[in-house]
Every structure is written in structure tokens, then in C-alpha cells.
């Protein structure tokens, strides 16, 4: 699991009430989850997975850090959150036996295709399962980290490459071939720096000028991206360009946010349960 790191002055950066009826409640949740961040680009709409990969890519080299062993599972967590934000899946309701986030199963809410190949492939997997699985189990299944040979069929393959190709189609990345002595590798340098700069600026401002100090008043996609960037070990890339004093403020606020108890926070706002469940899964791993 990743940890939030701090840097000293000019130090080198390291890796360092009454319950509503379900239908009424679901409608309220869907309205909340479909709200767009007013700062989002009107020309290009990225999925959470695309945003995480874009944050993790080295701009000129076009690949993620070879030392990053967290981004694969982080991208799968992003798929679950994205599906929840689009109203396709949800956590099963609270019950006397199953109260904790990591005990509650992921349920199919709608099998309507999203138009995104990774999201729709995951949607088909969730629909095809004979028994529902938890958030943590789905992250493991989608990454292929399971000892059950009968469940290897649920692994999503070539996720980074497929997300990169989607970003190429949207004009944000380009495709090149690079030679690494013993092998050739396809890389995807950033060709549209404006979109990545907008994304970084949005996250920086959410922790600085527009800091709210209440996750339930934050834009849900921004909250989700902070959780996923941390879980994917790319959060350092977001704040690296800040001056030291602002860097420390942003990192401390992010740490405070991610140190909140997911169980407590999920109970306050049902619409963000999947975000907190994914954070709980990565906290446990």
C-alpha cells in the first residue's frame, strides 16, 4: 500500500433519520452522482481510469514508473467507482449481519452499456457471476490476483495499454516505439499537455484555494480521483510542482482526508459508498 510522503526544503522527491424508499433514495443518489464538476473540460471527458493513468505517465517518456506496483489495482478500483458513478453497480444495502463496507457485495444495478470497453467488460463479468462478490474480491479478480483457476476468466488484460489507446483516440497521448537494449516497447508520450495540466491544477486547487475540509461537500469525482491517485501511487506527481510550503499543506490535507474512517464517512452519504469502499479495500491490502 502506498503512503503519503513529505519533502524537506529543496529535498529530493522520493517514491515515497427516516429511511427513504429505495426508489426515491436511488433517484436522489443518481442525481448527485451525475453532477459534473464545473471545471471539467467540455471538449474532452475522461474516465477516472484515464485520469489516473495520465497522472502516472511520464510526459516525454510515455510510460509509468517501473517501480510502481500499485497502479494496476488502482485502475481496477477506478473501474468499480466509475461504474458506480454511472449508476451501473452499487453496494448491497446494510443489514444486521453485513454492516462493514468490505463485507457488503457489489450488486448490478443496470446492465446498460456505457460505451467504454473496459467498463462494459467489467459489467458483463459482474452480471455473469453466480454469487455476488465484495469490492476487495472484485479488485483481486480484475487484476488476476486469485488462486481460484475457475475465476481467472474475470481478469482484465492489457488494461494500461487499452486505456492509453483510448487517450490516443482522444488526442491526449501519441504512440511511439522505444528500444530498451533487449526489447522494444510501445510508449505513449503526452501530446496534449493542456488536459493533463488542467487535471493537475484541479486537484491542486481542491487541496489549496478551494479546500472545503469536508469530503461530503467535495465534488465526488474529485474525491474519487484523490483516493485513486493515492492508491495508485501517483499522488506525488500531482503536487510535485508546488512550492515547498504549498506542497506540505496539500499533502497534509490529503493525508487527513485519506486517514478518515471509511465506515463512518460512507454512512454519512450513501451516494459515495463505493468510493469509501475502494479506499477501505486498499487500506486493508
Automatic annotation (TrEMBL):
Composition bias of kind Basic and acidic residues appears in 10-32
Show the GO MF annotations.
phosphatidylinositol-4-phosphate binding
Leader sequence segment: none
Name one process (GO BP) from the record: retrograde vesicle-mediated transport, Golgi to endoplasmic reticulum
Give the residue ranges for region: Disordered. 1-40
This protein's GO cellular component annotations are: cytosol; Golgi cisterna membrane; Golgi membrane; trans-Golgi network
- Kindly list the places in or outside the cell where this protein is found, as annotated in its UniProt entry: Golgi apparatus, Golgi stack membrane; Golgi apparatus, trans-Golgi network membrane
Q: Does the keyword Membrane apply?
A: yes
Keyword list (alphabetical) reads: Golgi apparatus, Lipid-binding, Membrane
Q: How does it sit in the membrane?
A: Peripheral membrane protein
Membrane: present as a keyword of the record? yes
Would you identify the family this protein belongs to, as annotated?
Belongs to the GOLPH3/VPS74 family.
Give the matching PANTHER family.
GOLGI PHOSPHOPROTEIN 3-LIKE (PTHR12704:SF4), TRANS-GOLGI PROTEIN GMX33 (PTHR12704)
Task: Please report the name of this protein according to its UniProt entry.
Answer: Golgi phosphoprotein 3 like
Species source reads Bubo bubo (Eurasian eagle-owl)
Q: What is the lineage of its organism?
A: Eukaryota, Metazoa, Chordata, Craniata, Vertebrata
Amino acid at each position: 500500500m502506498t503512503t503519503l510522503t513529505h519533502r524537506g526544503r529543496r529535498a529530493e522527491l522520493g517514491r515515497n433519520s427516516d429511511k427513504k424508499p429505495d426508489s426515491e433514495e436511488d433517484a436522489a443518489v443518481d442525481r448527485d452522482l451525475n453532477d459534473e464538476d464545473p471545471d471539467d473540460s467540455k471538449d474532452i471527458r475522461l474516465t477516472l481510469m484515464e485520469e489516473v493513468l495520465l497522472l502516472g505517465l511520464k510526459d516525454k517518456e510515455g510510460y509509468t514508473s517501473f517501480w510502481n506496483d500499485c497502479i494496476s489495482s488502482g485502475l481496477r478500483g477506478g473501474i468499480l467507482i466509475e461504474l458506480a458513478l454511472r449508476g451501473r453497480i452499487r453496494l448491497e444495502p446494510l443489514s444486521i449481519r453485513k454492516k462493514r463496507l468490505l463485507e457488503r457485495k457489489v450488486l448490478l444495478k443496470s446492465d446498460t452499456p456505457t460505451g467504454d470497453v473496459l467498463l462494459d467488460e467489467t459489467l458483463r463479468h459482474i452480471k455473469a457471476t453466480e454469487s455476488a462478490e465484495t469490492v476487495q474480491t472484485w479488485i483481486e479478480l480484475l487484476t488476476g490476483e486469485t488462486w481460484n483457476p475457475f475465476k481467472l476468466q474475470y481478469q482484465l488484460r492489457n488494461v494500461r495499454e487499452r486505456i492509453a489507446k483510448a487517450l490516443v483516440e482522444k488526442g491526449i497521448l501519441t504512440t511511439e516505439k522505444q528500444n530498451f537494449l533487449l526489447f522494444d516497447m510501445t510508449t505513449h508520450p503526452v501530446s496534449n499537455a493542456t488536459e493533463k495540466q488542467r487535471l493537475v491544477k484541479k486537484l491542486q486547487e481542491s487541496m489549496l484555494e478551494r479546500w472545503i475540509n469536508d469530503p461530503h461537500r467535495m465534488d465526488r469525482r474529485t474525491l474519487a480521483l484523490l483516493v485513486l491517485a493515492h492508491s495508485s501511487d501517483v499522488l506525488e506527481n500531482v503536487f510535485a510542482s508546488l512550492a515547498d510550503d504549498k506542497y506540505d499543506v496539500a499533502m497534509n490535507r490529503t493525508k487527513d482526508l485519506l486517514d478518515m474512517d471509511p465506515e463512518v464517512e460512507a454512512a454519512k452519504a450513501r451516494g459515495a459508498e463505493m468510493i469509501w469502499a475502494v479506499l477501505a479495500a486498499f487500506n486493508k491490502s
